[in-house]
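Notebook B, p. 112. Complex prediction, attempt 2.
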Amino acid sequence: MSDNQVKTLDVKALREKYNQERDKRIRPDGEAQYMAPVGSHDRYITHDPFADSIKERAPLNDEVEVLVLGGGWTGLLASVRLAGQGIDDIRIIDDGSDFGGTWYWNRYPGAQCDIESYVYIPLLEETGYVPKEKYSYAPEMQEHARRIATQYGLYEKTVFQTRVERIDWDAEAKRWIVSTNRGDKIKARFFICCIGPFSRLRLPDIPGFDDFQGHSFHTGRWDYGYTGGDHGGNLTKLADKKVAIIGTGATAVQAIPHVGNWAKHLYVFQRTPSSIDVRGNKPTDPEWVKSLKPGWKKERSDNFDTVVRGEPFDVDLVSDGWTEIFRKVPIVHVIGAVEQADKDAVAERKARLEYADFEKMSQIRARVDQFVKDPETAEALKPWYAQFCKRPCFNDDYLPTFAKPNVTLVDVSASRGVERMTKNGIVANGKEYEVDCIIYATGFEVSGTFRRKYGFEIYGKDGLDLFDYWGTGMRTFHGHSIHNFPNFFIAGWTQVGASWNFCNVAAAITEHVAQIVAETRKAGPEAVIEATGEGEQEWVDIIRSSAGFNDEFLESCTPGYYNNEGKFRETVATFPYDQYAPGLKAFQVVLGDWWSTGKMEGMSITK
Ligand code: NDP
């Protein structure tokens, strides 16, 4: 079917085409096709290309009230919220050499926030800062992370270039013992894990991976020493290099135009094309800034959540490619409230949403023809799946890159990925591509095993290993606390109400956790809090009872981390599946109700 000829969409044919395209990509090994950068591959993460030097220091053997792991948005938010509760005796640990987390490490050329910066970037009103553009670039976000840390005095409370290796609960001392790669043994009364969903890189476990003798790195540790240039491009050292990029997800889409501009030749190995819509970035309007009233940031972020969840809305404040479909088909479905609603009406709205999505994706596919004239390349660049099956991408330079004579798209969908690597390069579709450098744009451990995702060991009461405890799936109370893991909190993305805007989730959960820490401290200097077994079970039951709400959609999607590489049913421990289905707003109501009883039910404090 040629997309340009579609006048009235043939829904049945499109569904069939989507299914075919999905099936040809599903791999029996699922998540196991990836490997963690450990052991002989740890050079992909242990080297910090952005550090001036590694600062020598003596191991720390002291004690702090709260240890915050991670200096990205979540860690910063947690620290600021703790300060708001009057808790200053904190220490932040981060393996980067400055604040920023994801935005410290992801400095690849073109890195940009893909959600509107006014809703994405946290603590704007508190710092009096308004982003310069609708979609900020990485350096502005790094600068904002530093701004927050400076304003709240967090530099003096932080140890950088330090990786936590394990934490053990010392029941007698009622403290966590935090062991790091720098020989530290820090005692902490409370431990808040703020590692974010994109902090652990993953590599493809391609046959012959270690045979390649050229240069290689992951986009999460961009090697400007090798490429030259900086975030803005100017990758002059690539002028005589043949470069391969493996992957075409949200990261690659932003980096590829820059590599294509500078490399002698660029081979892009693509398994699944991304959906590429118009970015249309623009500078912030100073008149709009003047019109902002206190509370604008929360109002705008909440409005974005409401719109992209398909819930009723009066106004779409963000009004961009994320919200477009929902403007066309408002009130699509209210997840979790289907029983109360008129089922026929819900089914009708779902059908309208599906149709609007088919229309959107037809438009996306037609855009490819606008920029890429070689028919084979253009066909390969067309995505055949629903817009939200994968992170939708918005970029004005990506598609034109494939019209350049020095850029070759290598479609590896037929072999479900790159076949193998050799001493000199990459084999795909039976042909060897000799390259000087391979750049892995292969993503992060979002839906990998817990042990791989967390990257450090956690031992609770009686030496209970958290990841053994979670052997049959994640178990938490409200996503943040775990039975038998006292004074331990996760500020994360699973078993909480989700949002496409991670920072909105992080803002809600860190505020809540900081308040729990404050309440525990009020109970006495040795007080300890943990989830009760019953409280945890009740929450897990709630999560699992709603887990199927999105099955139909996940089933229809091409594999990726959103649907656990197509195996979302095999475990409840997957990223999109293990959610409080009614979403962030409803989750915040749950938390509000929980506080209002004054009983902290589901948790117990021992004085
Ligand atoms: P992804 O996991 O989205 O993409 C990994 C890519 O590698 C996919 O294209 C995948 O193909 C490909 N791949 C993996 N193994 C192979 C193989 N063996 N052969 C060929 N190709 C392979 O990672 P990204 O880093 O691109 O994005 C991760 C997330 O980071 C995004 O979804 C987004 O949430 C976030 N991000 C956010 C930004 C922001 O502004 N906030 C900016 C950039 C990223 P396939 O699709 O077939 O699996």
